[in-house]
Write a structure and sequence with these properties.
The protein is an alpha+beta fold. It has helices at about 5, 10-20, 35-40, 50-65; strands at about 25-35, 70-80, 80-90.
Amino acid sequence: MTRAARLRPLDEARFTAWLQRAEAGERLTYWRGHLAIDASPLASRLGGEDRLELDRVSRLAWNMAQQGWLDLLQQRHGAHDFSYVAVRRRHEPAMPARLAA
């Protein structure tokens, strides 16, 4: 069993709360493992709901990066072992409606 298979993903609510309060330059590791494998319905060893939550969070991170809110980084620790890190950008685009408080 891989390290990722023993972990539970950060949930979308916690990721969103971090994004709303994070200062420029703050970092959040939202997953450690191999995202392409761990979020895959065919290859993941995560349970169904955990895999779906990881997929939701990783898609949200990607979308927020595309809209200018985040930079996304990876740090390799070993084979199939990466940290996936969101870094709050310095400029502030308009908050997407679904995240506005």
